[in-house]
């Protein structure tokens, strides 16, 4: 299967590219951890595969339009 065909089929099924999908999965996992644990941002970033809290904040804001702290606060009310 060609790269173009793979990319097109992947996008049809997932709504995103093969390159972006893992990042979206990591941010989604971080989102769930923020909602369900009291772990630190560094711990959540490491558990989600984002490395550091700086990367977590950057990608979280870029993909979801909010900060991890603001997202956590929304679910702590």
From TrEMBL:
InterPro entries: AraC_XylS_family_regulators, Homeodomain-like_sf, HTH_AraC
Keyword Protein biosynthesis among UniProt keywords: no
Transmembrane segments: none
Compositional bias (Basic residues): 1-11
Swiss-Prot/TrEMBL keywords: DNA-binding, Transcription, Transcription regulation
Sequence segments annotated as region (Disordered): 1-21
Keyword Transcription regulation belongs to the record: yes
Name of this chain's protein: Helix-turn-helix domain-containing protein
Organism this protein belongs to: Nocardia terrae
